[in-house]
Amino acid sequence: MDELLKYITKYCSFLYGEFGFKILSSSSSESFGNAAIELGVGDFNLQFIRDKGQIFLDFKSNYINEKYPWYSMDIIRQAILGEKEYKGLMDRENAEFLHKNFPAIVNMFKPDSAAATVRQLKALEKIRSKVIFKTQTACRPVN
Fold it and tell me: For tag attachment on the chain, is the N or C end more exposed, with fewer CB atoms within 10 Å?
């Protein structure tokens, strides 16, 4: 939990300083050091996750009524920048991307654009799944 809090404080303090986010929930596992902190403002939530020593960020709008309405940083980056790479780990670069593009990200999840955003993000997730599956299959040893 400490590493997650340090990251948020060091790189993402603009979320609560400029945009008014509050901590909604948190959880941690002492045995593995995994942790999660959910922040929210209005109908928009962010979830910082520390898993296996790496930090990730997921986005959610309460306007989206889905079984799993969270979308990862790499998919958000692709939607905004059209990148082909998957840059999902939260580092200084992704914190800067988040800060610079935060208004655009929030606009993606507003009621009038949420449905189109979900269609776009789901399509990007399918492409990512195919790329990951193809990469994993190519790395398997031949019998």
Answer: C
User: Are the CB atoms for 43 and 32 separated by under 8 Å?
Assistant: no
DSSP reduced 3-state for 69: coil
Burial per residue of 57-68, b for 16 or more beta-carbon CB atoms within 10 angstroms, e otherwise: bbbbbebbeeee
Residue 56 and residue 90 in contact, taking contact as beta carbons nearer than 8 Å: yes
- The label of the residue with tokens 């914190």 reads 95
Domain tally, the chain: 1
Q: How far apart are alpha carbons 39 and 15 in whole angstroms?
A: 9
Q: Where are the alpha helices (DSSP H) in 21-91?
A: 73-81
Q: At what angle do helices 73-81 and 92-108 cross, to 10 degrees?
A: 70
Task: Using DSSP, state whether 23 is helix, strand or coil.
Answer: strand
- Local confidence band at 68 (pLDDT 50, 70, 90 cut-offs): confident
* Identity at 15, one-letter amino acid code: L
pLDDT band at 51 (very low <50, low <70, confident <90, very high): very high
Q: In what order do the strands lie in the sheet with 34-41?
A: 22-29, 34-41, 44-51, 54-61, 71-72
| Residue 102, in any domain of the structure | yes
Q: Could you tell me the residue range of the domain that residue 121 belongs to? A: 2-138
